[in-house]
Amino acid sequence: MSSLYLTEIEKAYGDGRDAALMAKAGEIIKSGGLVAIPTETVYGLAGDALNPLSSKKIYAAKGRPSDNPLIVHIAELEALKPIVKDIPEKAKLLAKKFWPGPLTMIFNKDKRVPAETTGGLDTVAVRMPVNKIALNFIKASGGYIAAPSANASGRPSCTNASHVYEDLNGKIPLIIDGGDVGIGLESTIVDMTGEIPVLLRPGFISHARLEEIIGRVLIDPNVNGAELEEGTKPKAPGMKYKHYAPKGELFIVRGGEQGSIERINSECRAHALKGEASAVICMDAEVEKYTADVVSSLGNTYEDAARNLFRCLREMDEKNIEYMYIRAFEDEGLGMAIMNRLIRAAGHKVIEV
Ligand code: TXA
Ligand code: MG
């Protein structure tokens, strides 16, 4: 798509100082345009969820396949009922506990929600973000905002406004800059339409926390990176695409600490001999143990790793890194969410040590 807009970036604070900006953004949305916004998870590319033309524009701006449904963002609980067929009891419990927050639930949709927004599905994904700027923006924009992550399709999601600018400059009129996001990975998605809810995408709200509130929650096999059998469709269509991917090749190394570190160092030595640029992405405590062109730390905790992962992958592109290595995270709690993104960023390349 050619450049159509002079893209503005405007700072927001989540309080009264934003009044004029919110009014301006609301006008853009109500007239069918798009605005990029911060949320607590990642930046979103927002349009009017009830306007089919806005949803089409979102797909065009992202370069995203239009069978990949969008999440509808709301700012208050009363907004849920008009867009869904029914609200299961377990969904009410989860909403009470986790909304506003980084949880998306799938419902059977009401006909008010256009097929363009749901990628032709009879279900709709709904989330109420907790970020103040996002909430004020949704209220100023008519109450129903479709917002996929604001990255160009296939790239790592955006955790600050300058990443959005990299991907969408010229394609939208306005980016609202709310600073760095707090969580850094997209929301947890749970399908509430069946008897037993199903976790489709792990996020900051873990499987265990969901089960504390509503009992048994199944985990979709696609979550852990199981390759799809031929002819089967993933429940969250977005999860089938190559995703979060840096330009170079990423490998996940799984095994004991010492063996994994030695293996990664020997791979990087081999790259150096061939004149290839390599990098290791690791936790702070391991930085000194690696020798590569670039050794990049994700911080000290899994929370740090979640917040820094996408930025780190983007920096690898800027540094023209051709091969990247990262040790596997524990596949539970927030680690499950991190591994879910890594598996896709790596195109399923896992080295077992
Ligand atoms: O944290 C988030 O959820 C961010 C911020 C901006 O709110 N949004 C986000 O949207 O991650 P997106 O479009 O990048 O990812 C939405 C995911 C996709 O994998 C999509 O296939 C799935 O949700 N999804 C949406 N509607 C669905 C539905 N009706 N049934 C199953 N999966 C659905
Ligand atoms: Mg996305």
Q: How would you describe the overall organization of this protein?
A:
With 353 residues, this protein is of the alpha/beta class. The protein folds into 2 domains: 8-224, DHBP synthase, CATH 3.90.870; 249-352, 3-Layer(aba) Sandwich (Rossmann fold). Helix content is 29%, strand content 18%. It has helices spanning 19-30, 52-62, 89-98, 132-140, 161-168, 207-214, 257-273, 302-318, 334-345; strands spanning 8-11, 35-37, 44-48, 71-73, 103-108, 123-127, 145-146, 174-177, 188-191, 198-201, 218-219, 249-254, 278-282, 294-297, 323-327, 350-352. Helix 1 crosses helix 4 and helix 8 packs parallel to helix 9 (334-345). The protein is globular. Magnesium ion (MG) binds at residues 148-149, 157.
Q: Please report the total strand number as a whole number.
A: 16
The distinct bound ligands, ions and cofactors come out as: threonylcarbamoyladenylate, magnesium ion
Which percent band covers the strand fraction? 15-25%
Q: Can you identify the CATH class of the largest domain? A: Alpha Beta
Write the H/E string, N to C: EHEEHEHEEHEHEEEHEEHEEHEHE
The helix-and-strand class reads alpha/beta
What value does the average pLDDT take?
A: 95
Brief description of this entry?
It contains 9 helices and 16 strands. The chain has 353 residues and is an alpha/beta fold.
Name its key features.
single chain, Rossmann fold, globular, binds threonylcarbamoyladenylate, DHBP synthase, 353 residues, alpha/beta
